[in-house]
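Annex B. Sample input.
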Amino acid sequence: MKVIGIDFLPAFWGFMATASETLGGFLLIIGLFFRPALILLVWTMIIASLVHLSNGEGLQAASHAMELGIVFFSLLFIELRRIQS
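Annex B, continued. Sample output.
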């Protein structure tokens, strides 16, 4: 979170990222709280991509986080489209 200017409680933010990836993935599998889980996962992947890019690791290191972020964002739009139909 230091990448976006939030530099207090780094252990808390690390725990929140771990919880969103673990619980978010589980909730995604069982289909419970689908949209909130996807929003948290997209946010975590944005931060992960920014961390890789700010460390100078380049697109190759950040590509996995970017790819997953796009997948989660796409699932969010698919779910919203399904609801509207």
